[in-house]
Amino acid sequence: MEKLVKFLILFVSTIIITASANAADIDNGSELHADKCTACHDSSLYIRENRRVQTLPKL
Question: What's the structural domain count of the chain?
Fold first, then answer.
């Protein structure tokens, strides 16, 4: 029983730490998108047909 309690504490602690470490930074992401993507491209880039990159040089 003691091993189970220790395991559960470790398991829950790991989930909590991982979740907080992976939390999204929405403001930073928006700023990065504005600086690196929409500085050159408008939103039509996301809705055009055949938007997947076919080759590395086209990227």
Answer: 1
